[in-house]
Amino acid sequence: MEETSVFLAYLGDSPRMRIMQHLIEGRRFDYTLTDMLDAGVSWGTLNKIMPKLLEAGIIVKTRKIGRATLYKLNQTHPASKHLIALYDWLIMQQLDRVRKNFKKPLKTKAIL
Questions:
Q1: Domains delineated in the chain
Q2: For the residues of 42-92, what is the DSSP string, one character each?
């Protein structure tokens, strides 16, 4: 069973949020629709959600390679900016919790 990310646990594990998480994590790259299947959504769901995200301006078309169109997160869109900031903040909070757990002394038995 897959563990839910802190981002999806916070905002809800929906296909739309899985796509957004995938694009936020790879915000410097552009993706084909086939690449975005790695977000864990079906082809049909992806084809329903993408036009809505494009229309809202959250995702933009970047280029075409042959018959494939590539898409990227529009980092200048206000909603994207807020989601990116939330994602980064949640990851940093999780990292801080992990760091605190590593600072706790380990219970060991002395071998004499």
A1: 6-103 (1.10.10.10)
A2: -HHHHHHHHHHHHHHTSEEEEEEETTEEEEEE-TTSHHHHHHHHHHHHHHH
